[in-house]
Amino acid sequence: MINEIFFDEPMSGDFESDAIELFRNNLSEEKILQSASSLALFWSECIGTLDGEIIIYSSIDSENWSLADNFIIETASNSDDIMIYLIDPYIKYVKIKYIKNGITAGKFSASISITGV
């Protein structure tokens, strides 16, 4: 199952996702019900100075965050080479932040692949 985090989010302003839970447990049976396997990030139609920033944070408790990755958007689109991150099973939450810098327009989408176990 693919869950959209952002779909064609306008890149003319900064934005940030809520904490995204990667694993859901059934505590009474001590087993994992759902597990995220990958995170896909893609953008298109970017104009302006191509220097926007995507920051990915990770957490084990959704309160204390660590920088997982960050990169500068240097192309108008990555549709021919979208970014895919494999999910580490030790990370329970992720958060995505976008800082527009000189980008004046564009569309950003992010999705996560979740499977039932």
Describe the structure.
With 117 residues, the protein is mainly β. The protein has one domain. 0% of the residues lie in helices and 65% in strands. It is built from no helices and ten strands. Strands 1, 4, 5, 8 and 10 form a five-stranded antiparallel beta sheet that branches. The protein is globular. The model has no long low-confidence stretch (mean pLDDT 88).
Provide key terms for this protein.
117 residues, globular, mainly beta
In short:
Helices cover 0% and strands 65% of the residues. With 117 residues, the protein is mainly β. A hairpin with a 4-residue loop joins strand 4 and strand 5.
Class computed from helices, strands and strand pairing: mainly beta
For the biggest sheet, the summary is: 5 strands, antiparallel
> In total, how many domains does the architecture comprise?
1
End-to-end CA span: 12 Å
Low-confidence segments:
none
- Whole-angstrom Rg: 15 Å
Task: Provide the succession of SSEs.
Answer: EEEEEEEEEE
Please state roughly what percent of the residues sit in beta strands, choosing from under 5%, 5-15%, 15-25%, 25-35%, 35-45% or over 45%: over 45%
Mean pLDDT: 88
Shape: globular
Number of strands: 10
Tally of helical runs: 0
Helix content: under 10%
